[in-house]
Amino acid sequence: MRALIVEDDRRIAEDLQQALRGAGFVVEHVEDGELAWFQGSTEAYDLIVLDLGLPRLDGLTVLKRWRAEGCDSPVLILTARGAWTERVDGIDAGADDYLPKPFRMEELTARARALVRRAGGLAAPRQQIGRILVDLNRMSVTVDGNPVVLTPLEFRLVAYLALHRERIVPPTELLEHLYGDDESRETNALEAVVTRLRRKLGQGILLTRRGFGYGLDDGK
């Protein structure tokens, strides 16, 4: 899962990056509204954490532009502003959730996971899909009740397929959501991860539809 943090306070941004990486996200960071608008308009994210008090272009304007352009990534607003009218303005502009500063990182990561689940049409953090159980909160996977040890990248792939369990996910989409801008988005690298996962999960769990993409076997 891929997240964008838009925050001009570097200390807060570093704490946010650490917290979201610990929650299983691959994270990118920008510090001003103009860059944020460009990134959100041109890249696909599973979550955007957006501060309102930004240089060059304020967060509310950025959010309005994203929504007008069709960007539907879940957006969690952060702000030091406490007025309820500003919270209403943020929600009306298209924010999915709102967290006033100061806040606990544990609350932020819980809200982040919930937003990603809801975007995938899921309510519960534990998803049973055929023989595989994916716990999005604990970042754990079991097959037939047996725990499977995965790397962060391997878990991100399984989690993304679980969040989109009703369809086959194209390789290009997986590459967008598994890797950040600073990582190589090569089809061969994705195929290598899929090969390792098949060895760990066992046969028949991770499906390939030639020419279409990947999915999880729901046992039906």
Outline the structure in words:
Keywords: DNA-binding, Phosphoprotein. By secondary structure, the chain is of the alpha/beta class. Helices cover 42% and strands 21% of the residues. It has helices spanning 10-22, 33-42, 59-69, 84-92, 105-119, 152-163, 171-178, 187-201, and strands at residues 2-6, 26-30, 47-51, 75-79, 97-100, 126-129, 132-135, 140-143, 146-148, 206-209, 213-216. Strands 2-1-3-4-5 form a 5-stranded parallel sheet, with helices on both faces. The chain is elongated and about 55 Å long. The relative contact order is 0.13. The mean pLDDT is 90.
Q: What spatial order of strands do you see in the largest sheet?
A: 2-1-3-4-5
**Strand percent estimate:** 15-25%
Q: What is the helix/strand order?
A: EHEHEHEHEHEEEEHHHEE
Helix content, binned percent: 40-55%
Largest sheet: 5 strands, parallel
Helix-strand category:
alpha/beta
Mean pLDDT: 90
Rounded to an integer, what's the Rg over CA atoms?
A: 18 Å
Taking the alpha carbons of the first and last residues, their distance comes to 26 Å
Shape assignment: elongated
Low-confidence stretches: none
- Work out the number of β strands: 11
Number of helices: 8
DNA-binding region: 124-218
Protein name: Response regulator transcription factor
Modified residues (4-aspartylphosphate): 51
InterPro entries: CheY-like_superfamily, OmpR/PhoB-type_DNA-bd, Sig_transdc_resp-reg_receiver, WalR-like, WH-like_DNA-bd_sf
